[in-house]
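Quick sanity check, Speckle-type POZ protein B:
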Amino acid sequence: MNGFTAVWRFENFSYYWQKEDGAEINSPEFQVNAIPGARWKLKLFGTIHGFRMEDSIGLCLQRAEVDDGPDCLVLDIEIAFLVSGRSLVHTAERFLTNFRKRDSSDAVYAMKDDVLCLMREAFLPQDVLTIRCRMWELDSPVMEEEQCLARTIIGIERAFFVGTIEKANSLVPGLKTVVHINSASTDKLSFSMTIRLTDEGKFAAEITVHYQFIKLFTAKVMILDSFRNWKLCGQSVDWKKSGEVCEFPLTVLFETLLSDKRLYLPKGVMTLKCEVAFSTEAEPDRIETIDYGFDVCHSMQWKASNVENANSLQSIARDSESSGTLKSDLIALYKERTLCDAKLCTENETFLAHKAVLCARSPVFKTMFTSDMREKTDECVNIPDLEDDTVRRMLHFLYTDTIEDLQWEDAKDLYFAADKYEIFSLKQKCSSFLKHNLQTSNCCDLLLLADMHNDADLKTFVLDHIVIQNQQVFLSPEWETFMKDHIRLAAEAYSMYFKYGKT
């Protein structure tokens, strides 16, 4: 046995841990080819002998209940919580273990406050907890030849509503202002939202969701600028029950809005979007998969962050083949401009399209064309911040689900467009391309892009690259320029390096 590595990705972890109050949960079972018949699983637990641990989350390796392997195995194992969702280890312990059937290894522990609050961005990027287990024969060198990736996905639903505050430039500190809801993505839920301006010029959001079948929910708030870009400006940490007030601070300052009214307060109106993730009273769907032979580091980039229910989770878990006839028909419909009823206008060109296709592929376009926003009645959707070629490529993807001849700058521009119009599949393809082509010479460029778009996954990937390649990056001319122009991001990268770089 040369070595074995198992990585377990637990998606929507904070929801499960709060709902079940720390109840134990096992990973999908896995096998090691070098140990025929033996079956293994990783276990997270919050109780010991029936008593709940107030401060810690425990992790151990177990032999499964049904196990046809040897009665006793002597193995060298290492189990660890990973931070940043990839390869940086926060807590790791290596044990020499005599494994009998149904035995468990010694446990490692992470502080609950670190995981769920203080170091949440590191432990739970996009609410995904990542765990790694390594196994070797006694005294053998560390050689990772066999690998597997296990996934546990707790299904939750998502909905959003768009609202406005009239005369937002005249808000009074200390008073609460009701957000007038213009549209919502569901008619099942009842939303209410107020914004409070503090004496220090900061905003706080208070959101309540009413629905008799809701168990728990979280929320995040985005603000719309005059270029039709949604900018994340705050999100809750804790899950709330139906009817409870979900309150959290927003990062945008009143002074910032007033200093750039044309961007954030056109005609004195502030437009906000709130996205709510929630579960119902029913037991949430749990999707479990196990894949062998993967490059673990690349496989951990797999995401299901846009999953809205169990059906879509299952569709992501399998590769679906598009119907050739449907695809060719849509391409013909687009190329022939048959029955087009929408126009997308850049500074130099006008593109014809179909509202039905735009709405089906982009929730932003759907909101534009189905709510009381001006695009519903205007002849043309103005897109002054996108180049002609970017809009052309974006439309080609919306109709064909393919990207052709992608280059670095094209991918960056398309990523921007995909984020703006919430075309998540396009954003993921662009992100994957950018990650695959990440180099020392362009990592500063990509770090800035990820930070501008609040993309925690992409930002973490770039920071990991900087930590691993440290001297090559820190001594490069690109980094020297980057430090002068972006001090905060450079400091964040240095902090990451000094904290984890020598682990």
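Posting the structure with no commentary besides this: Confidence is low (pLDDT under 50) at residues 295-324.
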